[in-house]
Every structure is written in structure tokens, then in C-alpha cells.
What does this fold into?
Amino acid sequence: MTLKILVVDDSRAMRAYIRGALTSSSEYEVDEAASGFEALRLLPRSDYDVVVTDINMPDINGLELIRFIRNSERHRSVPIVIVSTQSSKRDEDRAVELGANSFLPKPFQPEEIARAVADCAPERSSRP
It folds into this structure.
């Protein structure tokens, strides 16, 4: 069964990098959003298994996106992986406090993002 991932980052190059890291196997189907606002438009249209988001973005940032997801009845249990250049312990603590499942500082290797997603992805046997 394929897992559906939403990648949210205002950098086209970073979205492509993450997509490449995740779609190197057939386990993941990846949708992309260039902003938090675009992610909010995509979330109601699909059941995502994991959301990967940057913190620093125009309009709605990654922390606000986490807050929205955790307050949404439909999406509150969706695992969230933060990828960010803001990699201080304070930034990581804040993201986890808001409900992120994992925090990965940029830059990272393709296998690191693939591992972070796999580690927090729901078990395939629990999916319909």
C-alpha cells in the first residue's frame, strides 16, 4: 500500500529534493505545496499519511500549519515532520510542543528524510 505524503516548503528545489528522496521507492505518493496557505487548501482534498513541512514560509508558516493540523478533527493524528534551517534546541522544542513528531535540520541527506518519514508513518496494516 502506498502512503500519501504532503511536502510543504516555499523552496521549489527543496520540495524536489524531498520528493526525489521519498519517491525513489514506490512506497510513497507525494503532493507538494509551496506555502502553508496552499497546504491548507490541499489538506481537505486528501487523506495524508504524513506531512513534511518547513517552518519559515510566507503567509502561514510551518508552526501555524502544525497548530491547524492538530486542531483539525480530520487531520489531528497525521504525523508531522519538520525540516528547517532553524535548528536550535529552542526551535525543535517549540515544534515538538506544538505537535510535530520529528524535527530534521537542513541540510540533510535523502536517506535521513526517508527514515524520518518511515519512522513516523502509520503502519500499513492499519490502513483500509
About this structure: The chain has one domain: 3-126. The longest strand covers residues 3-8.
